[in-house]
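In this supplementary section we document a worked example of the pipeline. Step one takes a protein sequence of length 152 as its only input; no multiple sequence alignment statistics are reported here. Step two produces a three-dimensional model, which step three serialises into structure tokens for compact storage. The input and output of this example are shown verbatim.
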Amino acid sequence: MEAPDLAAAIDDAAAALVGVLESAASRHQLTVSPTQLRVLSLVSSRPQLNVNGLAELLDVVPSSASRLCDRLEAIGLLRRVVDPRDRREVRLVPTSAAQELLGELTARRHRAVQSVLDRMPPHAQRELLTALAAFAQAASGDQARDTPGWPA
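The serialised model returned by step three reads:
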């Protein structure tokens, strides 16, 4: 009997998860593109981010990042704010409308994933949680010695 291809199974599960998440987003009429959502998410999680830092995270030239910010600013989802400690620095700040949009999207995604989880037996949900925690630790380079079943 051949051993299961764990990497292929994870790839399949990741594709299924992406499909669930994208479906949750597409069922709601979003006024922004996936790239703009990514920008808002990055800006929301990094309060000191400027256009050059955003360009680096997106792996684009600063002028492209600036145009993305221009569009988001024009629709009221992003502001450029001068850093009071260094007036040469301009920080990117999501507006309350952007925070609301990201919150709604996160809630929709969580509901969509929960719907799938509800179709799994409780023991499979617990095993999935343990496996995902071990995977996250391994991916971050941490030693996962406290994870049950981790090799000695």
